[in-house]
Alcohol dehydrogenase catalytic domain-containing protein (Mucilaginibacter sabulilitoris), 349 residues
Amino acid sequence: MSNENLIQEIPEKADFARFLGKQKIDFVQRVVPQPGPGQLLLKNMANSLCGSDFPFLYNGNTEISPGHEIAGIVVKAGENTSTSAGTRGIVFLMGYCGKCRNCKQGNTNQCLDKQADYGFTHDGGYGSYSVINENVFFPIPDDVSYTQGTLLLDIMGTGGHAIKRAQLVHQSPVSMIVLGAGPIGLGILAMAKIMYGNDFPVLISDVVDYRLDLAKKLGGLPVNLNNGSLADSAAKHGFKEVDIAIDSSGKEVARRSALDLLAQRGTLICVGHGEGLQLKISPDLIATERAILGSEYFSYNELKGNLELYLKNRDYLDQIITHTYPILELEEAFRIFVERNSGKVIVEY
Ligand SMILES: [Zn+2]
Ligand SMILES: [Zn+2]
């Protein structure tokens, strides 16, 4: 359908994915919601699959349609909005208030009065339509496809933010390791290459050949943990230590071995949720002046800079998208994604 038709012909009911648990997904017809004041109605056009969808995939959620890496087109704007119907864009998943102390400082990923997490608490991109607050919508240029637009979210956004967190404590790193070569890990790798330059060495570990091959294509130095310890494999690449370690795996053993590989004054950034980490405070932190920081998603205001980076590096970044499926094949898309022989898997309308 043309953009005009999408705006003029909003159906009364449309398909919304329903996650039934045990990797089963079906579609039900539901009433298309109306945008309230300050809100936009989006016709969703693409959504990228994410490991954060797994609790819904395995345990089910019939309350909402998940999907939090949304690209779509505004088909109807509520009162008190300035975005016009026909605007294409992507959705920042956190419905931030814009008024609290953290939002005022630009830290919209740390909002103290969050209204929604789109795709978690409210309908997301696996339904045909979603209603969002206008302030989470970010327009994309005409020559960036919806599918490409989703790269600005968890790939560039979350990846870039993790590196900016590291920059708070380390201004002159000469090496980095990324733990886990899933989509988030690949995003961190790609953003490190873009932000520090192609010669900046980034080791990246995993156990899945497909992902390590893709990481290598993106310029990473692959570390296959099936073939030995992190320290041994890093040594084979010529690294006895690294300045920055970023964990996207959520595994304690990964964090621990990364910390042991960290140089003095190095920093470990934790992006992957999951397990814990036992610390020996004196050797781990005090004597070595290392730092450990968390990094959660990214701030809305980072999207603008990341779009500029995308436009300069689009061919490089597009390599992260390895599979696309029509939305009605969402269950199959997840089957492929779960097998881990993929980069980003994206469903399209
Ligand atoms: Zn995600
Ligand atoms: Zn806020």
Remarks:
- The first strand starts at residue 13 and ends at 21.
